[in-house]
UniProtKB/TrEMBL annotation:
One of its GO terms (molecular function) is ATP binding. Residues 95-314 form the ABC transporter domain. The keyword Nucleotide-binding applies. InterPro entries: AAA+_ATPase, ABC1_TM_dom, ABC1_TM_sf, ABC_transporter-like_ATP-bd, ABC_transporter-like_CS, ABC_transporter_C-like, P-loop_NTPase. This is Uncharacterized protein. It comes from Callosobruchus maculatus. It comes from the Eukaryota. Residues 424-552 form the ABC transmembrane type-1 domain. One of its GO terms (cellular component) is membrane. The chain crosses the membrane at residues 12-37, 359-379, 422-444, 465-483, 503-534. It is found in: Membrane. Keywords: ATP-binding, Membrane, Nucleotide-binding, Transmembrane, Transmembrane helix, Transport.
Length: 552
């Protein structure tokens, strides 16, 4: 509607200015008329395109500047807690806290905790919700202490409590960008009880783990997440209760082979509530009521057994006696073909006619679309003919002025033609305004109806989709369809369709007017059209592919 009002304003302004100028008894000439037209076209472009665009860009700039300002004014995070640079000579890995207090939103989570770890395996335990994970987040600088000192020296590797799996191969999920070392990789698989699982998978290391690990068990996800942290050659390993999804026998195997043996020369801080591990570690950090106390294993009494969470969420489908290695395993979806990572199919070539047909049918059908096209055609017919009437009007004004200057009586026929021209021009301007408004409203309703129906069909399809669809399609792709794609259909497509019809019929009107003046003008027009056609053939394939890539 803004574009429509901008186009109509220049027409109405020109009509009002010239008619007022003539009614005041002033003579008019072609030079004056077309000078006013040129000025109004410039003003129309400025007020219709440049100024609104400037306001929009200024608003976007202001909002972006505010967001950047908030970021720049944010309190700097002091990264003295974690120093991942190469250790200095005579300096070893170390985790040291002194009187560290953590407070978030006025609630004190940890208070005046002090401990010093420079080697060995340390367990962090305590009641549920006591703040065990908060201790690890403090060491990772994910949260800051209100008071006290936190100092972590050395490279840190972290295994979260909730396993994070991304759609890729088993190997890529473990490596996560690290350089591949076959010996270390095989050793990590062994200590994390993944060797037998890897051998049983259809494609081994190249087995595709789907979105959120939907085709593997929770225990396998936990061990893959642990293997990812262990594979990284770090000085300090922070493991946040990453064994809780495993069978008790698998827990004992992984604890013995991974934490106790493989990481024996590293600093390993392991969060768990399994009291069976307490007597096998160097020290225990007991977290309770926000306080952390470093204890030796023999001081933790067996009365803390009730703190252990119910074991475990899943059991092995295969007995341990069936394998040389202890392994927790579950049944996988059997397939003769190697599963692949979900990848959206990208169309190539021209847009199929069925796409246009579906959009037209959603908007109201071919009858409505043809009616809108006819309205645009009628609008530009009135607009083009009104421009021809301006030329006739100027010629009549000049003839009448000549009669008056020569003191010759103006003929009755000339006056009649003059009045008819003014009346017809006024009617054409009025018709252009009315038809433009009606066609724009109908086009807006057409595109809105198509967008609403398309959105409803998408929602209906999503609600009726089987669970397998959600297993193989990433949630990001679904959100992208409902956000970015629908935004294009709602906001950009109506303007594109409006500009298409406006430019098409404006061009046709200009060509007809030029042909009416002199048929020879069609020669340069034909040359220009031919050049534009070949430029279109070059641009359209590249532009179409770029648009498809942008929407993928």
């Amino acid at each position: 509607m803004i574009l429509l009002l901008g186009a109509l304003t220049s027409k109405l302004a020109f009509f009002t200015m010239v008619m007022t100028y003539v009614w005041l008894g002033n003579p008019i000439s072609a030079e004056l008329v077309y000078f006013i037209l040129a000025l109004l076209q410039r003003v129309r472009h400025a007020f219709n395109v440049v100024i609104p665009m400037g306001i929009t860009e200024s608003a976007d700039f202001y909002a972006s500047a505010k967001r950047i300002e908030i970021l720049l004014k944010a309190e700097s995070v002091t990264m003295n807690a974690v120093e991942e640079n190469n250790l200095r000579i005579h300096e070893s890995a170390r985790v040291w806290l002194k009187n560290a207090t953590v407070e978030i939103d006025g609630q004190q989570l940890l208070r005046e905790i002090t401990f010093d770890i420079d080697s060995g395996l340390t367990i962090v335990s305590g009641p549920i919700g006591a703040g065990k994970t908060t201790v690890l987040k403090l060491l990772l600088s994910e949260i800051r202490c209100k008071e006290g000192t936190v100092h972590v020296t050395g490279r840190v590797s972290y295994a979260p409590q909730e396993s994070w799996i991304f759609p890729s191969t088993l190997k890529q999920n473990i490596l996560l960008g690290e350089k591949f070392d076959r010996n270390r990789y095989e050793e990590v698989l062994k200590v994390c009880a993944l060797t037998v699982d890897r051998d049983r998978l259809p494609a081994g290391d190249d087995f595709i783990v789907k979105e959120q690990g939907s085709n593997i068990s929770s225990g396998q996800k936990a061990r893959i997440s642990l293997a990812r942290a262990i594979y990284r050659n770090a000085d300090i390993y922070l493991l946040d209760d990453c064994l809780r999804s495993l069978d008790i026998h698998v827990q004992e195997y992984v604890f013995k082979e991974c934490m106790h043996r493989f990481l024996s020369e590293k600093i390993c801080i392991f969060v768990t509530q399994n009291h069976h591990f307490f007597d096998k570690v160097d020290s225990i950090l007991w977290v309770e009521n926000g306080a952390v106390v470093k204890r030796s294993p023999d001081t933790v009494s067996s009365k803390n057994e009730q703190l252990e969470e119910p074991v475990m969420s899943e059991r092995c489908d295969v007995t341990l006696g069936d394998y040389d290695e202890v392994n927790e395993s579950t049944k996988l979806l059997e397939s003769k073909h190697k599963p692949g990572i979900y990848c959206e199919e990208k169309k190539s070539g021209k847009v199929e006619k069925t796409v246009y047909n579906k959009y037209i049918n959603l908007g109201g059908g071919y009858f409505v679309s043809v009616f809108i096209i006819l309205l645009f055609m009628a609008t530009h017919t009135c607009k083009s003919y009104s421009e021809k009437m301006v030329s006739n009007w100027v010629n009549l004004e000049e003839n009448i002025s000549l009669y008056k200057h020569s003191n010759t009586t103006v003929s009755h026929g000339l006056i009649t033609v003059y009045n008819f021209t003014l009346t017809l021009y006024s009617c054409l301007i009025l018709g252009t305004v009315v038809l433009s408004v009606i066609s724009a409203i109908l086009l807006f309703n057409f595109t809105r109806a198509a967008s609403n129906k398309l959105h409803n069909l998408m929602v209906k399809s999503m609600m009726g989709a089987v669970m397998y669809f959600h297993d193989i399609i990433p949630i990001g792709s679904i959100i992208n369809r409902f956000s970015k794609d629908l935004t294009v259909i709602d906001e950009q497509l109506p303007f594109v369709v409006y500009d298409l019809l406006e430019i098409l019929f404006s061009f046709c009107g200009v060509v007809i007017l030029l042909a009416y003046v002199n048929l020879l003008f069609l020669i340069p027009v034909s040359v220009i059209v031919t050049i534009m056609y070949f430029m279109r053939k070059i641009y359209i394939p590249a532009g179409r592919n770029l648009q498809r890539m942008d929407m993928a």
